[in-house]
Amino acid sequence: MAKEKIELGPTGRTVAENLRRLRITRELSLRELAELADQAGRKFGVNALSQAEKGLRRLDVDDLVVLAVVLNVNPSALMLPVEVDRERPVEITGHGEVPAIRAWKWVDGHMPLPGRASEQQARAFDQAVRPWWSRANTLTVSDINAGRLQRRPLEYDDQDQEDGGR
């Protein structure tokens, strides 16, 4: 029995576009990007990266993370459109369209997607997506809907400062 090819969804297409945009912005050839990924522990052929940029090859989570590392961006910068107006609709796989600002706040763990959270679910979201030391003091649906999600600033100890906050 032959495997049925799984088509890229909207997030996969955005990853393909952003991968190409970031590679070009960083003035890297496909070969150079493949070499950087290899040095980071993930082997890509030039053809595989070319196909990924064209949306003809799926990337798994490890691929996505190593590409974010070598391109010096967070994984979110590959998954969502960067150069968009904050209110422009962005399609989220499995959810549909939301304003870009809400998509970014969701993917960065600041708030659940619109229409997905009751008061209790919003608190559960906050506790599930962030380490205890970066959670908001209080989280309500009203605050989320108004965009008033305040987080405590992260505190670094001397060791964090020495190694760049890693």
CATH uppermost class of one domain = Mainly Alpha
**Largest sheet: spatial strand order:** 1-2
Would you count the extended β strands for me?
Answer: 2
- Kindly report how far apart the N and C termini lie: 47 Å
Instruction: Give the radius of gyration.
Output: 18 Å
The helix content, as a percent range, equals 40-55%
Query: In terms of per-residue confidence, which ranges show pLDDT below 50 for 5 or more consecutive residues?
Result: 151-156, 160-166
Order of helices and strands: HHHHHEEHHHH
What would you call the shape? globular
- Helix count equals 9
Please name the CATH topology of one domain: 434 Repressor (Amino-terminal Domain)
- The chain-level mean pLDDT equals 83
Architecture overview:
With 166 residues, the protein is mainly α. Among the domains are: 10-79, 434 Repressor (Amino-terminal Domain) (Orthogonal Bundle), CATH 1.10.260; 109-154, no CATH class. It contains 9 helices and 2 strands. The chain has helices spanning 10-25, 30-39, 46-53, 61-71, 76-79, 100-107, 119-129, 141-145, 158-162, and strands at 89-92, 96-99. A two-stranded antiparallel ribbon has the order 1-2. It starts with 9 loop residues before the first helix and ends with a helix.
Key descriptive features of the protein:
166 residues; mainly alpha; 434 Repressor (Amino-terminal Domain); two-stranded antiparallel ribbon; globular
